[in-house]
Amino acid sequence: MLTQRWFKILLGLIAGTILFQYCVQRSEPLFNDPRGMGYAGAAACVSCHASTVAAYAQTAHHNTTTPADEKNIKGSFHNDSNRFHYRTDLEVVMEKKEGKFFQTAYEAGQQKTSFPFDIVIGSGRKAQTFLYWQDSNAYQLPVTYSVIGKCWVNSPNYPTDKVRFDRVIPIGCFECHASFVERTGMREEKGYRIDQLNKQSVIYGIDCERCHGPGAAHVAYQQEHPAEKLAKYILTYKNLTNIQKMENCATCHSGLREPMRSPFLFKPGNFLKDFYRPDTVKQSAATLDVHGNQYQLLMESQCFKGAVETMSCGTCHDPHKMERNDMKVFSTRCMSCHQQNGPKFCKMAPKLGATIVNNCIDCHMPAIPSKLISLQSEQAGSIANLVRSHLIAKYPDATSKYLKSVRDE
Ligand code: HEC
Ligand code: HEC
Ligand code: HEC
Ligand code: HEC
Ligand code: HEC
Ligand code: HEC
Ligand code: HEC
């Protein structure tokens, strides 16, 4: 053990020396990443991992926070569909002026408050919410866009009779939806903790190093040794225990919890218990919300309980690819354990015939409305936020519904 540890320290020293020499030679930092020395930034990965970088650019993770521009805002600015009414005489209008985008409140036709769209949160799978900067704080704009409802809606949990522009966004949104933002200070306001942030330091989206840890030494080494086919100074995922693999995803997929250390510092191999306070309420599968609790729900499933050493998020999800809605691909992953002619296959197989391989998901992981987040539209009322349950089980209702939908086709 001791020698292994010394070996690691030695490797670290060598890596440090290589990096140091680079910086001295250039008399400037090798990489200019706001996270500091050790990090290289996503642009530095392209030269050697081009196909991974290109595929990854399509994913929800990569696009989960973006600068607010024409391409990234999914909602319409057309004047037949760019309003949200709070009352007949009170509305917010989404406006485009000289290439910039604004939410402007009008009361009885008079312009009241107007703020720009600066940041988009949400890749556009279901919903997008928008932030604007003022000094060292980001604030949420009053109107959100529902991709499902294809309409502008009131931001979640906002009053329905007045327009608010004053909701400060905590650093937590960035901790799960971005790769970094620097906290420059904190202040108390009406008993609430307000984080002050450096807006120049935002690293949009979830980048390679958010999941793989700092990569500057790896880049420096591989550039110096182009013939080297093996990776150095970057953690090898395969060597992690199953629970470590799961916890790397669970930093953001185990619901809202209070951090003790900045989740930005979480690296593969670290443990959740060193970052978050334990959940004070022990929740059961029945009370866990489907929204964001994939980690706990999966662990409650019979599949996981019967495959604790081998099953992780990566069993079904390829972290570098956009595979959304491809039920056939996901079903193949179920069948890596539940082989079609094996003893653990579906009891419904005789009834379903050959088509069973197309979709195990709608019957065993149905999409269920989140109890936490629903959006209020002007015309259609509440828009359900459907989330795939990671409690893999037998669902009689979902089964009837799926059978009916197949018959109706
Ligand atoms: C100069 C070339 C080069 C650059 C730049 C580079 N890598 Fe690599 N990387 C390699 C080589 C070579 C391997 C080993 C072969 C493979 O797995 O693709 C590798 C492997 C990896 C692995 C797998 C490690 C393992 O053992 O499982 C990860 C993760 C990785 N790189 C991440 C990154 C990240 C993140 C960046 C950008 C910050 C980056 N690489 C930049 C050359 C490079
Ligand atoms: C830094 C936080 C973070 C980490 C770490 C993270 N995720 Fe996510 N994940 C998110 C957020 C935020 C979303 C929602 C993105 C959106 O649509 O805006 C998401 C969405 C997803 C989706 C839905 C994708 C889609 O296209 O529908 C899957 C699947 C997923 N994550 C799996 C994983 C897996 C597997 C891991 C670990 C290998 C992981 N995540 C690690 C934050 C994270
Ligand atoms: C603990 C991590 C975490 C925190 C903190 C967090 N989110 Fe999320 N958020 C997620 C994950 C994971 C998803 C995808 C959830 C799913 O589909 O189950 C998501 C989804 C979303 C979506 C929908 C994205 C889409 O395209 O479907 C929006 C919008 C969003 N979050 C906004 C916010 C805002 C605003 C905050 C801060 C008030 C915030 N989130 C804080 C993890 C987090
Ligand atoms: C959401 C977390 C996440 C993000 C973001 C991410 N990776 Fe990975 N990466 C993983 C996981 C998990 C594995 C292990 C996959 C497996 O078990 O085969 C992996 C494996 C790898 C490997 C080695 C095996 C392979 O699949 O090629 C390379 C190289 C790699 N990643 C590079 C990158 C690069 C470059 C980026 C940025 C474009 C990136 N990763 C972004 C989670 C992530
Ligand atoms: C890593 C292997 C593995 C994968 C992948 C897997 N399962 Fe399982 N599953 C198991 C094990 C182990 C059990 C426990 C019962 C047993 O041993 O037969 C189980 C049990 C089940 C059960 C019975 C649950 C109950 O409550 O009685 C269903 C249904 C099921 N799996 C469906 C699926 C579906 C659908 C997928 C894909 C989304 C899937 N499984 C993926 C290993 C796996
Ligand atoms: C047995 C297979 C399986 C495993 C293991 C698994 N997932 Fe999934 N996951 C799925 C399927 C199937 C979907 C639905 C995909 C779709 O609709 O495109 C999904 C969807 C998701 C989504 C999007 C949910 C939504 O409806 O918006 C997130 C986020 C996610 N998974 C995260 C995770 C995380 C984190 C883990 C590990 C704790 C994990 N998954 C483990 C099969 C799995
Ligand atoms: C039409 C809905 C439906 C589809 C599609 C479906 N299942 Fe099932 N599955 C069920 C129902 C319902 C049961 C419980 C049947 C019973 O107990 O008689 C079940 C039972 C199971 C079981 C438990 C078997 C046992 O020994 O108790 C497994 C494992 C399973 N399914 C896996 C799968 C896999 C893998 C797929 C895709 C290849 C799949 N199912 C597709 C509805 C479905």
TrEMBL record:
InterPro entries: Cyt_c-552/4, Multihaem_cyt_sf, Multiheme_Cytochr_ET. It comes from the Bacteria. Residues 172-213 form the Cytochrome c-552/4 domain. SUPFAM superfamilies: Multiheme cytochromes. It holds the Pfam family Cytochrome_C554. Keywords: Signal. The keyword Signal applies. This is Cytochrome c554/c'-like protein. The lineage of its organism: Bacteria, Pseudomonadati, Bacteroidota, Chitinophagia, Chitinophagales.
